[in-house]
Amino acid sequence: MFKLFHKYKIRKNIKDLIKKNFFLRKKNKKNNGLIIVEFAHWTHFHLTSLYLLNSLIKIYNSKIIAFYNSCYLDRYMNISLFKKLQIFFLKILKLRTFKIYNYLQCSDLIYPNLSKKNSIKSNKIFLKIIKSLNSKQDILKIKISRIKIGDLIYDSYLKRYKKITINHSSDEFKSYLKLFIDLFIFWENFFKTYKVNSVISSHSVYSCGVPTRIALKRNIKVFIPNVNFLYQLNKKQQTTDIEFFKFKSDFKKYFKNTKKDCLLKGKQAIEKRFQGNFDKNIYYSTNNTYKKKIIKNNILKKKGFNILIAAHSFSDAPHVYGENIFPDFKEWLYFLGNLSNKTNYNWYIKDNPDYPENNKIFIKEFIKTFPKITQIPSDTSHHFLKKKVNLLLTCYGTIAHEYAYFGIPVINASINNPHINYNFCIHPDNEKSYQKLILNAKNLKIRINKKEIFEYVFMRYVLNKSGYLFDLDKFFKKNSFKDLYNFKLYEFFLKNFDQHNHNMIVKKFDNFVRNKEYMYKNQSS
Questions:
Q1: Which residues contact 221 (CB under 8 A, 6 or more apart)?
Q2: How far apart are CA 44 and CA 450, in angstroms?
Q3: pTM greater than 0.85 (yes/no)
Q4: Which of 39, 43, 101 is nearest to 486 (CA)?
Q5: pLDDT in tens, 389-408
C-alpha cells in the first residue's frame, strides 16, 4: 500500500512539474499535423521525450499521439479483441503508463493493423521476397519501396526469438517476415494518410527502425533520445551511435586548442575502467571484467601463439552499426572454428558475464564442434589474460581498444566498427583479407599510438556522456542501470530538479530541434 501511495505521489509531482515548466498544456490545433512518440514503459524515455515534445510543440503546435512498436510483432500486429478492450479501459481510466502519456498530452494510442486492401498488398510483397531468398545473406538485401529493411528484419528476428542465427527457409522465420512486411505496409500507409511532422522513437534498430526510415524518406524529423545522448537522424545517418565515423575530424575541429586536456580525460577514463570499478560511461554493463579475480594459472598455455576470441551477444542487433564481413556472430564464429583446424595456434573463446543464457548454451556446443578452441570462464579477469594473449579477435567490441592499450594486436571483423577512424586496430574489409591476416598473425606488425586510444575514449565515452537532463555520476552513486527504467529515476529527477539548469536545457533543445545536427552536443565534459 505504501509503494502505491509513493508512486501516486511521484506521479502527481511529475504532473505538477510538467504543468509549471513545459508548454505541453497549450491547446493543440487538430489540423496542424501530428507528432508521434513511441509508447514505452521506460522512465528515462518519458523524461527525454518530455523535453523533446516541449520543443517540438513550439514549432508545429501539432496533436501528439503515441504508437506501439516492438520486435514482438506477433503480440502487437492485429491484436485480439480482448487486448483492444484492455488498452481501451487502461487508456480511459489513465492507468499505469497511460497516466504518464496523459501528462505528455498524448491524445491517442495507435497500434499497427492492416485493412484488407493493404493485406493483399503485403501478401504480394511477401511472396516476391520469399522467392528471392536463397540464403540468410539475402535477407540483408531486402528493400521495400526502395527502403532498406533487411538488417532490421534480421536483428528483430534474432531478438524476438533469442536466436543465434536465421534459417531463412523455416516456417518460424517466414511467419515473422510476413508480420514485418505487414508492419512496413501499415507505416507506409500511415505516413501517406496523415501529415506527420516528427517522430520520437526509442531505437533506430529492430522493428523500431521501420517508421523512422519511412519518415526519413519523406523528410520528416526523427529523434532518438536516451539519458546520455540525443540523435536527430537523417538520410545519410539513419541509425544512432555512428558518430564515430567522424571522430578524428571532429576532434581536430572542436578540440584543437584543448587537445592535451581532452587526451588526459580519455586516459583517466580508460585507466579508471581498468581498476575494476563500475564505469558509468558504459553504464549498461553491470560486470567489469577487469576485476582482479583469483584463477588457475594453467588456463592459458605458456608456450605457443595464443588467440582470444571475444564473443558477442548473438541476438543483440549484430547490424547496429551496419553490415559486417559475416551476416551474424554465429557465422563469424564458425568461420574461426574452421580456421582453427588449419593452424597450430592455441585458440580460446570468452564471452561476457552480462550475456544471456543462449550465448552460454551455444558456446558449449561450439567448443564441442571445434575442440581446438578452449572456453575461458566469462568472469576471468582480463588483467590475467592480457599477459598471455598474442592476438584478439572481435567483430566490433569495446574490448578492441582495451587490448590495443595493452599493446596486443586486434583484428575487427567489420569496417563498420567504432574504432574505424584509428590505426590501433586492424580493419579488413572482406573475408579473404580477414583470413590472410589471421593465418599470418605471427608476422603482424602494428604500431599502437596510445594517444589515439585516449582520443577515441574521450570522443566515445567522455564527451556528451555526462547526461544532459541530470547528473549521471550522481544518479549512479545510489542507483543501478535498472533504475533508469523505473520510478527511482522519477524520484531522483524531482529531487534534483533545478530551475536554472532546466531553462538552459530547454534553450538547447529548442535550438537542436530547429537545426539538422545529428547529435545533441553536451560538451560540458
A1: 56, 197, 198, 199, 215, 232, 513
A2: 35
A3: yes
A4: 43
A5: 999 999 999 999 999 999 99
